Amino acid sequence: MNKIEALVRPNIRALCPYSTARDEYQGKLGIFLDANESPYPTGYNRYPDPRQKALKEQLGAIKGLPADRIFLGNGSDEAIDLMFRVFCVPGVDNAVAISPSYGMYAVAADINDIQVRNVPLGPEFSLPTQALLDACDEHTKLLFACSPNNPSGNAFEPAELEDLIRRFPGIVVLDEAYADFSDKGSLRGRLDEFPNLVILQTLSKAYGLAGLRLGMAFSNPYIIRLMSMVKYPYNINQATQELVSRALAQPIGDNVATIVAQRARVAAALPAFSCVRRVYPSDANFLLVQVDDADRLYAHLIADGIIVRNRTRVPLCAGCLRITIGLPSENDRLLKSFEAYEKGDIHR
Ligand code: PMP
Questions:
Q1: Which atom of ligand 1 is nearest to the CA of 202?
Q2: Ligand 1 atom nearest to CA at 149
């Protein structure tokens, strides 16, 4: 058994997955009397492709990866949950994670009865490599890192991530949900160098398709096969497969560049307000902003019809609001609302 195989839950290693008759049928035109579907066409009377072959090929061409290195999930949240289900024995194994980071790592861990050991980021939200490694024991199967990180907004240096991936003896889950907004790029082109790496990306951010729920995991074909065995057979519905395929065939446009330019503009404008203590550097499509009284400013913005995320009770984020970059006109409104707040023209 190789090192990666040894990390897999024994019951998953031995799993005989659900298979459909359509997995066995390779021809083109057929009479489908195998799946107890309705024969009457509604546009959706047939089950979708459980392997999402066409969509994986289309995404593979964009991402520069073969289909056998791609897992598609109902959002990246599905892939996060599957990491625990594939690798961690409930009540026995554990995971380490940077903190603060995306909340679903801990929620998925709790649901699967897996302990998460949260390791605070270092100074200036830096990657705490040694502390992450020190937090491990023989039951540590997974390490969650997120770059650019939510909610801190910063991306870690590829060389630092590389060092962590090489030194961690389990599976590193590197969440790159916001990588399209960062000039530090993605590690997905280097999967061959890291057999213990699973990269998560999503169509929910830069691609503007959050409503369709399409998350991706990139890894070696063995880990992708395990994830595919454990997922629900028809996890990506027909409408999502069709609509994503259509959206990917359109020119991408310059939305990401506009968001990045607006990020710089809002980051430059905010420090002029006296309530703003610090705007953290961001490689993502949001800004983490430390202010004098986060709860009061948050309530003002809500009353003014602007919803941001209050992160003041999150570790290392005291006094912070996380503000997503919107349309230029929405960012104008945000800055106007800060102005009104400063003038004392505040809502209660
Ligand atoms: N990862 C990170 C770091 C996120 O911030 C989010 C959403 N807020 C997700 C994953 C979830 O992505 P999806 O919509 O693909 O489930």
A1: 15
A2: 3
Q: Tens of pLDDT along 115-139? A: 999 999 999 999 999 999 999 999 9
CB 337 less than 6 A from any atom of ligand 1: no
Helix axes 255-269, 328-342, angle to 10 degrees: 10
* Substitution candidate for ligand 1 out of 72, 204, 244, 322 with most atoms within 8 A of CB: 204
Structure tokens at 257: 């560049």
Q: Please tell me the distance between residue 175's alpha carbon and the centre of ligand 1 in angstroms.
A: 8
Query: Are the C-beta atoms of residues 223 and 81 closer than 8 Å to each other?
Result: no
Identify the three-state secondary structure at position 85.
Answer: helix
Beta-bridge mates of residue 146: 175
Spatial distance between the Cα atoms of 8 and 87, rounded to a whole number of angstroms: 5
pLDDT at 30: 83
DSSP 319: T
Q: Distances in Å between the alpha carbon of 214 and those of 115, 119, 236, 240, 325? A: 27, 29, 8, 8, 21
260: left (phi over 0), alpha (psi -120 to 50) or beta: alpha
**144 alpha carbon – ligand 1 mean position (Å):** 13
Mean pLDDT on 203-215: 97
Q: What pLDDT band is residue 114 in, cutting at 50, 70 and 90?
A: very high
E strands, the chain, are: 70-73, 94-99, 115-120, 140-146, 171-175, 197-202, 215-218, 276-279, 286-291, 309-310, 320-324
Q: Indicate whether residue 102 lines ligand 1 (CB < 6 A).
A: yes
**pLDDT at position 345:** 73
Q: What's the pLDDT tens digit per position in 163-198?
A: 999 999 999 999 999 999 999 999 999 999 999 999
